[in-house]
Amino acid sequence: MKCLFAALFFVCVSAAIGIQFQPNANVIYEKLSVDQYPSYNPPSWNERAKRARYLLHYSNWGVIGTISTHYNRSGLPFTNVIVVSDGPLDNSTGVPYFYVFDGDVSVEDAVKNNEVSLTLSENTVGYKYCKGLNYDPELPLCARVTLAGKLKKITDAEEKKAASNALFTRHPDMRSYPSSHGFYPARLDIELVWIIDYFGPSYVVPLSDYWAANPLL
């Protein structure tokens, strides 16, 4: 009987603590989101090049697609989560940079075929039409962008320095990644920019428009 009362007491106290702290956790999450993305207010849907650049700049991660060389799936599509940065918050380069190592399955795929795709969603950055209003990520108002091209290891010393700065300022934990894994910066050489950010068909953004757009203005 004493054990039963003790168990009930524990459950009641735990529930009370959960009720007390759950709102605080939400407030903390919202505060972190606001601090990290002080004004996620993307360009209009018809400024597609700028919208694509804006989404890349404010994304911390996306989904990378490769042609698999693993798991008896050789030659078939495979996707994986990958962390990304196109520069510090105050500087957008438009170039997706990654911090990878050769033992990652997606990198092993890319060694065989470095044609990859990177997909980003405004749902991941807390945009009001996505997370804020609990809209489904497939709703066109919640923009999604796919950047396709070649994954390249960065070997130039100056570019490696710039890419590392872009990554480490946004993802400081990367500095402590184990040196034994041999992490290195890589980039996506973009060949295609595909976007859907409004009702109607998807749109392919001309590369000249993409590179000319400034998402911070």
Automatic annotation (TrEMBL):
UniProt cross-references to Gene3D superfamilies, sorted A to Z: Electron Transport, Fmn-binding Protein, Chain A (2.30.110.10)
> What domain of life does the UniProt record list for this protein's source?
Eukaryota
| Pfam families to which the protein is assigned, alphabetical | CREG_beta-barrel
Q: Which organism is it from?
A: Clavelina lepadiformis (Light-bulb sea squirt)
Which keywords does the record carry?
Signal
Signal peptide (from-to): 1-18
Q: Record's InterPro entries?
A: CREG_beta-barrel, Split_barrel_FMN-bd
Q: What is this protein called?
A: CREG-like beta-barrel domain-containing protein
Q: Where is the CREG-like beta-barrel domain?
A: 45-211
